[in-house]
Design a protein that fits this description.
alpha+beta; Alpha-D-Glucose-1,6-Bisphosphate, Chain A, domain 4; 7-stranded antiparallel β-sheet; 4 helices; 38% strand
Length: 169
């Protein structure tokens, strides 16, 4: 019986689809300020630097001299994911991100060597009338079944911290 319960736990954590959400609070007083960060070339360049991206390809090109990024946006690079539950266990991997903006929402399809996921970023207002973002993520497909859902949480939390840092500069 104990073995069956353990097996069910592992099945749900490793094999099943997984959804999660986070909210990043800021001191922004307008939704446009949040959107400006998500559209700024500085944010994407900062993100790529933070994750240690190599062999970067962006279409259309993202340059620091450009104020805003055009959508749809394709970003491809090699990087080692910042996964706290398994530090340094993952080798550098190929990561492809396809981003699109529809109204005030940003939709990301992310494909890596280990999993495919979808992310939706949307501006939200908190109870203090400050604007931030809601980050909704879903694992679509695990290419290696032993990847725990916690690894996806760590990746999204890393993104959230990069966004938070970008709002203070």
């Amino acid at each position: 019986m104990k073995f069956n319960i353990l097996w069910l736990f592992l099945l749900f954590d490793f094999a099943m689809s997984y959804k999660t959400s986070y909210v990043v609070k800021t001191n922004f007083k307008s939704k446009d300020s949040v959107i400006d960060v998500l559209m700024s070339s500085k944010f994407y360049i900062s993100y790529l630097n933070h994750v240690g991206a190599e062999k970067i390809v962006t279409k259309p090109n993202i340059r620091l001299t450009d104020y805003k990024v055009d959508f749809p946006q394709y970003i491809s690079y090699k990087s080692r994911p910042n996964v706290r539950c398994y530090p340094r266990i993952f080798p550098k991997m190929n990561i492809q991100q396809d981003w699109n903006r529809i109204d005030d929402y940003f939709y990301g399809d992310i494909k890596t060597d280990y999993l495919d996921s979808k992310i939706i970023l949307k501006p939200v207002m908190d109870e203090m009338e400050n604007w931030g973002i809601s980050v909704d993520g879903e694992i679509i497909k695990k290419k290696i079944i032993i990847i725990p859902n916690k690894a996806f949480d760590d990746i999204l939390l890393d993104f959230c911290s990069i966004f938070k840092i970008s709002t203070t500069h």
